[in-house]
Amino acid sequence: MTNYQHRSSISILLIDDDEEDFLITRDIIADFPSGAYTLAWEPDFEKAKVKILQNEHEAYLVDFRLGAESGLDLISYSLERGIMGPFILLTGQGDLQIDEEARRLGAVDYMVKGSINPDQLERSIRYGIQHVLNLNEIKELNQQLERRVMERTRDLARANERLSYSNESLQKEVDERKQAEKALRESQKIYSAIASNFPDGMLCVLDKDLRFLLVDGKAEEPEMRNKQEWIGSYASSMTFIDQKEAFIKNLKKVLKGVPLNMEVTVANGEREYQINAVPLFDDEEKIQNLLIVCKNITERKKAEKEVLRALNQEKELNELKSRFVTTASHEFRTPLSTILSSVSLIGRYISDSDQKEKIDKHVHRIKSSVNNLTYILNDFLSLGKLEEGKTTFNPVSFDLEQMISEVVSQISPTLKEDQDILLSIAEGTFGEIYVDEQMTKNILINLLNNASKYSGERQKIHLGLGRENGLLKITVKDEGIGIPKKDQQHLFDRFFRANNAINIQGTGLGLNIVKKYIELMNGHIEFSSEENKGTEFRVAIPITQPSYD
Ligand code: ATP
Ligand code: MG
Hints:
Layout: E1 10-15, H1 19-30, E2 37-42, H2 45-54, E3 59-63, E4 65-66, E5 69-70, H3 71-80, E6 87-91, H4 98-105, E7 109-112, H5 118-196, E8 201-207, E9 212-216, H6 227-230, H7 244-254, E10 260-266, E11 271-281, E12 287-296, H8 298-349, H9 356-388, E13 396-399, H10 400-411, E14 421-425, E15 432-435, H11 437-453, E16 461-468, E17 471-477, H12 485-488, H13 510-520, E18 524-530, E19 534-542
Parallel strand pairs: 1-2, 1-3, 3-6, 6-7, 14-16
Antiparallel strand pairs: 4-5, 8-9, 8-12, 10-11, 11-12, 13-15, 16-17, 17-19, 18-19
The structure holds adenosine-5'-triphosphate and magnesium ion (MG).
Magnesium ion is lined by residues 446, 449-450, 506, 510.
EC number: 2.7.13.3
Protein name: histidine kinase
Keywords: ATP-binding, Coiled coil, Kinase, Nucleotide-binding, Phosphoprotein, Transferase, Two-component regulatory system
C-alpha cells in the first residue's frame, strides 16, 4: 500500500445497502476540511467482497447490517485474506454491544450512524490508514525478520553440520585415543603383572620423549618408591643413577632400534642394576615406546666379587705353595745327592770289614730311600714348572731304542723280585723319531714305576711300542692290584690315590704330571683296569715333523 499523502485523493468505499446512508455519508465527507477524499458506494455484500479483494481503496466504511449479512463477517472475511482495511464499522442506534466485537475482529473504529461528525470521521479514517500503513510496515519488518531468521537458521544449520562433521572427526580421534589408551592400559596390566612377579626388578615403559608411562615392579629403589609420581617425568630426572649420561645416551639409541644392555650403579655405587631396554613398536612397525627392565644385581655382584676375591686368594696361596715346594725341592736335591755320594764312598771304604754284608744292606737302604726322595722331589719340581708354564714342548730327533734301554736300566733296580719288563716292539718302530725326549722318558718312567709298585713279586710288566699314523704308541700293562671302578674317574687328579693303594708309598702326583705332559704334546692317554687282575695304560704321542731352521 502506498502512502495516502502522496495521492491526489483518498478513495473510500462505503458498503451499505441503504442509498440514503450513502448520500448522507458523501455529504459528511465533502465537509472534510482537507477535501481530498472521494467516496465510492457498494450496496451488495458479495460484490463488496470482490472489490475489497481488489484492494483499490484506502479505507472502508462498513455498515453493520447488510441485509441478511453482517458487516462484521465482511470485515473478518477481508482480514482473513490479508486485506487490512482500515475498516470502520457503522451501526445504527442501539447496536452498542457490537463495539467490542468489532475491535476484537480488527476494525479500527466504530461509529453510530446519525451522530457522525466530519472531523471525527476524517480523523478516524486518517488514523485507520496510518494504522494499516504501520501494520504493513510491521508486517514487512516481520517478514524481513523472518527471512533473516530463516537465513540465520540456515547458516546455523550449516554451521551445525560443519560442527557435527568436526565433532565426528573429533569423536573419531577421541575414540582412537580411547582405544590407544585402552591398549596401553591392557599392556600396562600385563607389564604390571610381569613386574610384580619379577623379583628384584622394575619394569618401566617410556614414550619417545623418554617420559615415564609406566613404572612398576617389586624392587623398591628408594627414589622410585612412589611409582605413580614418576608417570610423566623424564628419564633425565633419574639423577640417582651414577652413569646417568651414558644411560640416557643409550636410551636414545634404543629409540633408533639398538637394544640396551648395561649395568649401572646408583647412590654412589651403593646398589647395582642390570638394565635391558628394547623398543616397542606400533601397528605400523614404528618405534612408539621403550620397555626398560631393571634388575637389582647388588647381591649377585657382591657374591661375584666375593667369589673372585676368594679365587684370587686361593690362587695366590697356591702360587705361594708351589713356589715354596719348587724352591724347597730344588734345595733338597743338593744335600740328597751329597748324602748319596757319601754313602757310596763309605760303602767302598769299609769294604774289608767283617760286617760288610750288614753295612752293604744299610747302604743300599739309604741309597734307595734317597732315590725315592729324589723321585718325589723331581715330581714336585716337574709340577711346579708345569704350573708356572715353564715347561714347553721341545721336540728333538733322538734314538728311541737308546732311550728305552736307558729307561729300563733306570727302572730295573727298583723292580721287585722277578718282576721282569717284557718288551714288545712293533716292526719299523725304531729309527728317527721326533718328539719331546724328556717328556716321553718321564711318561715311561712314571707308568713303569706304577706298574711295578702296584704289582707283586714275579708279576710281569709288559711294555709295548709301536708307530702308527704319525703316532708313537706306548702301552704299559701289569698284572697287579688294579684300580677300583669308583676311583677310576679321579685317576689323573692331583694327589689322588686309589683306596687299594693307601699302604703303598706314593704322593698321587705321577699320573697328573703324565697327563699334563701328554696334553702339552697334543697326545692322548687312556687306561683299562680291573681290580686284582691288572691295569693297562695306552698312550699316543704325535710325531712332529722336524723343522730345520
Ligand atoms: P707318585 O706321585 O709317586 O707316582 P702315585 O703312584 O700314588 O704316587 P700316581 O702315579 O699319580 O701316584 O697314581 C695315582 C694312583 O693311581 C695311585 O696311587 C694308584 O692308586 C693308582 N694307580 C696308578 N697306576 C696304577 C697301576 N698300574 N695299578 C694300580 N693302581 C694304579
Ligand atoms: Mg706313580
